[in-house]
Amino acid sequence: MYRYLDRRVTDLGEPQRFLLAAMRLWVESAGGGRCCCAALVRGFAHCRVGAAVRDFGIVMTALDRDALEKLTFGCRRAMRVSEDEARMLTLFDAALGADAPRVRRIAATLVRDETTATLATAVEWVAVRLSDGSFMEHDQ
């Protein structure tokens, strides 16, 4: 977690910036009563990871419904990574590193026991989509 805590967003790698922006947009959309996945589709498609929208939605819904404590996320323009955002980026990093036991351990600190496997599996599928070689293969 400390790898990301209070870091500037501009200092993050592409996958982490993308995931952070997606988390913040999902939370903003949910708070505004809009369809969260619909808000994310364009950005995910632009980065060639449209197949990850469903699993990302599962991740965020699991956190929204079954979190052990209320998680807070910054606004989309916030320049630094908050504590809960750092926890989530660490979870995604474990999945990107294919460290399934670590993914499960971190997931267990975030959601109720009965949701841990769902969260971990969805995070792992998002990571698979981000790691398949097509992420960000667009003209920038």
**Taking all residues together, what is the mean pLDDT?**
93
Q: Per DSSP, what share of the residues sits in E-state strands of 2 or more residues?
A: under 5%
**Cα Rg:** 14 Å
> How would you sum up the global shape?
globular
What are the segments in which pLDDT stays under 50 over at least 5 consecutive residues? Answer: none
Short description:
The chain has six helices and no strands.
Task: Describe the fold and architecture.
The protein has 140 residues and is mainly α. It has helices at 14-31, 36-46, 53-66, 83-96, 100-110, 113-131.
List the helices and strands and how they pair.
Blueprint: H1 14-31, H2 36-46, H3 53-66, H4 83-96, H5 100-110, H6 113-131
Task: Identify the notable features of this structure and list them briefly.
140 residues, globular, 62% helix
